[in-house]
């Protein structure tokens, strides 16, 4: 499965910051990284970013890239704002395109549920909007708002590594549940230090290894 993750805006995007100065992109990129890390622990999963730490990537370049990559799903990660000063607007909300495509609406509901469960923030629901990245992408597309930069309490949360990780992982878990992704199998690798026909020789080597600080055991085949 090919997942396109879009950390909204960039370091230099005008106006996209909290009244205290936190850039929205700082949150978006870290949440995107956390989502990618967890998603790559699932089988047959590829994750691509539309954004860049070196420049503010235009909306058209983002949607063009997603379409060129023929992604299966597009997730745009954001932090919300109401006006430019501190206020009481708060909570998490998720958006789909204004026609409310069924696939996107179903995924958005799963993401919204997982985010509110994991963050404990107010559930503002799933909404529809004519955002470029929802309109111009040729795949299931959802945009997530993970809290308000203009709310003092949520702005503090958005600054913390733990909250950024929580949001990214919640999005990844919702995707995994929705698309029934299978976890990669863990593999066990063994190191054998020796093989002997006489037990006392095996015991002698085991004692030597333990004196050197290594744990070990003797098995009989």
Description:
- It contains seven helices and six strands, in the order E-H-E-H-E-E-H-E-H-E-H-H-H.
- Helix 1 crosses helix 6 and helix 3 runs antiparallel to helix 6.
- By secondary structure, the chain is an alpha/beta fold.
- A six-stranded mixed β-sheet has the order 2-1-3-6-4-5.
- It has two domains: 2-178, Zn-dependent exopeptidases (Aminopeptidase), CATH 3.40.630; 190-221, no CATH class.
Q: What's the helix and strand layout?
A:
Layout: E1 2-7, H1 24-39, E2 46-49, H2 59-68, E3 73-80, E4 92-97, H3 102-119, E5 123-129, H4 132-135, E6 140-148, H5 152-158, H6 161-178, H7 199-211
Parallel strand pairs: 1-2, 1-3, 3-6, 4-5
Antiparallel strand pairs: 4-6
Please state roughly what percent of the residues sit in beta strands, choosing from under 5%, 5-15%, 15-25%, 25-35%, 35-45% or over 45%.
15-25%
Gyration radius (Cα, Å) is 24 Å
Largest sheet report: 6 strands, mixed
Percent range for helical residues?
25-40%
Average pLDDT score: 94
Assembly status: single chain
